Each structure stands twice: as structure tokens, then as C-alpha cells.
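Let us work through a complete example step by step.
Step 1: write down the sequence.
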Amino acid sequence: MDITPRITNETELDGILTPYSWSKKNVVKKISLQTPGESEFIIDFQNSKGKQLVEHVGKRVVIRGTISSDSISQQKILVSSFTIFDW
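Step 2: predict the structure and record it as C-alpha cells.
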């Protein structure tokens, strides 16, 4: 099975930040972006921009970044910038 990531150009996504996985102590370890089209993008924590989004789980956000996917159909986004909407 080929698990080589496929990288796309930078894009902009709009959606809601949701928890994706938790530690044994019930601490959020990973988060994802749920888009209106019901797509899910795991937030890549390789940089500080992605890590900052943990504080905003449950909020609407517009993320600009680079999407990568693997043959398991998981899509990740490496965040270059974001805007949080407080509603």
C-alpha cells in the first residue's frame, strides 16, 4: 500500500473546529475542521499556527493552508493563517 502524501496548492477552507482524538486523561490531542460539505481535514500541528487552533474548538474558522492526503483518505491541512469568528 502506497502511503506517500499528496500535496496540493495552498487553499482556503471554512468550517467548524472539532476534537478529533483525545488522550487517556480526556485531553484533546488532535483537532479537525468540519466543512459545510461534510469533509473533514485534520489540523497538522507541525507549526505554531495549527497548535493555536486547539484553543478555538467549537468555533467557526477560515483556514488558509496546504492540504495533503494519503492513500487512507485522511486529509490534513498545514495552517499558514486563520480567522476565528466569534458567534
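Step 3: interpret the result. Strands lie at 6-22, 28-34, 40-44, 60-69, 75-85.
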